[in-house]
Amino acid sequence: MSKQNPGHVARKRFGQNFLHDPTIIGRIISAINPKPDQHLVEIGPGLGALTEEILLEAGALEAVELDRDLIPVLRTKFFRYEGKFTIHEADALKFDFASLQNDERPLRVVGNLPYNISTPLIFHLLSFSGLISDMHFMLQKEVVERLAAQPGEDHYGRLGIMAQYYCKVEKLFIVPPGAFNPAPKVDSAIVRLIPHTTLPIEAKDPNLLADVVRTAFGQRRKTLRNNMKGLITGEQLEALGIDPGLRPERLSLAQFIAISDAIHSLRNE
């Protein structure tokens, strides 16, 4: 298994925490279950702890890495996979993942995501969900709880609603701080996101749905009536069977879609 490279110090600005625990690495690889002929993409391979095991199982991998100092380390480490291991020096937040798809195979995306960019990066990846068969990520435990949260739960909010619109979300297992070097101050967790081949409920305008959810949670302690002013009235919410006095965390994804579709219809009358 991969060891910490004594020549590379984890960089705080990149949110780097390198995975080194062989047992945890084995569990993650088992969850991913990489196979030959699959189109695997790793975000932020770091020092290659997961990369090594994925290459052993699948034989090919593309990686997106921002830290240019790590790239020669990775190329040297995996030189025997020349032509099968490709590194794209890029910021995953701005990267066009559609550019990787050069055949009919969907992308399988994996990564130990830096805590400081995990939420915007997931939103970015959701915009490519039609090209992706599944995603396996190591994230801060709280982010995984937000992704999987249901209405009324403390962590329920914009991230979970939009992730669940596009994907089935599965919490897999907790990863303790000691599995990393340097050890973070919080627990991590593994999550599996499987984009829906057919959306269970389809919004008329997904971008409008995203705006509605963002607006609703702008001040999450306020009621829908207050937060949704300018988009939809309390009377219009009542006409949809939704109590305008509720706080946003009480509404289901289906109810947010109903609000979004109603606003869409009002704007297009």
Write up what this structure looks like.
This protein is an alpha/beta fold and 269 residues long. It has helices at residues 22-32, 49-58, 70-77, 118-126, 141-148, 158-166, 206-216, 224-227, 234-239, 253-267; strands at 18-19, 39-43, 61-65, 85-89, 107-112, 132-140, 167-175, 180-181, 188-195. It has 2 domains: 12-195, Vaccinia Virus protein VP39 (Rossmann fold); 206-267, rRNA adenine dimethylase, C-terminal domain (Helicase, Ruva Protein, domain 3, Orthogonal Bundle), CATH 1.10.8. The strands form 2 sheets. It has a 7-stranded mixed beta sheet with strand order 4-3-2-5-6-9-7. A two-stranded antiparallel ribbon has the order 1-8. Helix 4 (118-126) runs parallel beside helix 6 (158-166), helix 5 crosses helix 6 and helix 7 (206-216) crosses helix 10. The chain is elongated and about 65 Å long. The N and C termini lie far apart (61 Å).
